[in-house]
Structure prediction request, 344 residues.
Amino acid sequence: MRKVTFRVATSLDNYIARQDGSFDWILQSEDSSSSLAEFWKTIDTVLWGRKTYDLVKGRMPAYKGVKNYVFSRKLKESADQGVELINQDAAEFVQVLKKQEGQDVFVMGGGELAKSLFEADLIDEVGMNIHPVLLGSGIALFHEMKRQINLELIECKTFSDGCVLVSYRVIS
Amino acid sequence: MRKVTFRVATSLDNYIARQDGSFDWILQSEDSSSSLAEFWKTIDTVLWGRKTYDLVKGRMPAYKGVKNYVFSRKLKESADQGVELINQDAAEFVQVLKKQEGQDVFVMGGGELAKSLFEADLIDEVGMNIHPVLLGSGIALFHEMKRQINLELIECKTFSDGCVLVSYRVIS
Prediction:
């Protein structure tokens, strides 16, 4: 079964972007980039929420060399050739995806997609690269969920840019 | 000048209690308790928001051997002899307090008190003991703030119970 990981860069107060969608506050250092590069080696599929995809689509291309799925009931066609739109229920789609042959799956976000996948018990691991900033306001990482998710700490890494990557296994 | 530290136990999704105020999910291990005990040695004053004080007042006594201040415009008298009620603006009060002789100051919370002290640039350090759980809903740790707070990572400690304590200096 393919592993599904929700991995994000976040502020300490759990915002993934400023209110206007900007992420100028995201840091990049050699050691954090190389940790992310290691993670990418395990991935061949990226799942995007529609809002997150809207945020980044003008600013960066869909990831190359991997399959990109964007969940949306609104979008008719994607701006990007490397992207497949999924109108189906995300949980149902991911249930099937997990059983297919392939490398692991990266849930890029956003919070609404993650919420539906957490609630359906489809996320296996969580990684948060916590940035040394309280943004004060912005687009929230987490949305209220119907149930508690219990985690087990796998690893905690400190990077030279002051970010802390915490990685967890979902246990129930 | 006395150092003012906002230190809290929080879930990974930044809740400090369940919706009903319960904190049965808080873990205690020998190493996390001894880290907290070291912190207490530096403290002689605890600041409480009124709501946080309401949450805990039936469940635990105000801390002994330290000065406890509760900020409230509503409360007339405290349930606890060891507690002094402050009707004054929290930021004005803490500005004076910081200049007084004494040990360091512990902002126990909650989020509304922290928000007003962050915005007034009165908090020097932040410590979050991040628990390995997504509660999904509850009482939020952070409230929206008017400005961004930039932090510098001081330390990141992993405890045997799977909690991660991240400590930051406020830089601007």
In short: Chain A has a mean pLDDT of 92. Residues 4-170 of chain A form a domain with the Dihydrofolate Reductase, subunit A fold (CATH 3.40.430.10). The helical segments of chain A are 30-40, 50-57, 90-99, 111-119. Chain A touches chain B at residues 12-14, 25, 118, 126, 128, 130, 132-137, 141-142, 144-153, 156, 158, 162-164, 166, 168 (CB under 8 Å).
